[in-house]
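Friendly challenge for the regulars: who can give me the structure tokens for this chain first? No prize, just bragging rights.
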Amino acid sequence: MTADRCLGLLGGMAWPSTLEAYRRLNRLVNDALGGVHSADLVVRSFDFAAVEALQADGDWDGAGRLLGAAAGGLRACGADAIMICTNTMHRVEADVRRISGLPVLHIADATAAAVRAAGIQRVGLLGTAYTMEGDFYRGRLGAHGLEVVVPDAAGRAAIHGIIYDELVNDVVTEDSRAVARQLVRDLVADGARGVIAGCTEIELLIGGDDVDVPWFPTTEIHVDAAAGWLLGCPFPGPPPGS
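First reply, four minutes later:
Bragging rights claimed.
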């Protein structure tokens, strides 16, 4: 087994989860290869304020151009594929692929594979409002054969606020942890047989020990699949017909 591929990371959206992704990628490659081996990576970490302003304005075309150009820069630095270190910004995944000319290791494909491997079809999703309400993520999970449920409007607003007001700044409070736990219970009451942490920052707030159903932490799932790709394994494929 060798790590003869270079992966480009689009990060800083926000930086705490990118830090965890970088750390885990290197640890997994070292675990596999031993010695002083580490992951071959090139990283572009954004000022999240600039990205968040585009999100708030609904300027997803501008966001796509921004991330796509950055991915092109990573290709010039030797990247063979791109990993977007956030769920929400997979909304512009097609722009990143088109502008950079590189494949994108899609977080929803890796997550869907993990949920299906657990034998679950109806799954809850927590994330930003963009991720929970848009079709770019839920639709892709659905194309993999999953039935996705999300919190009600108040719940969506609550977790979105926690993410942007606290977690992106590496702030974790017990009150917010309690809110997230209740949202998980609500999703289970709505028939979810597992719950996806569909924002990489949510994994800083709660984990598998906080829930009574299978928990799918997307940072960990995405990174594990990407580390496998670095080591020569196939990455989970897109939905049929994509």
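The chain is about 50% helix and 10% strand. The longest strand covers residues 7-11. Your move, everyone else.
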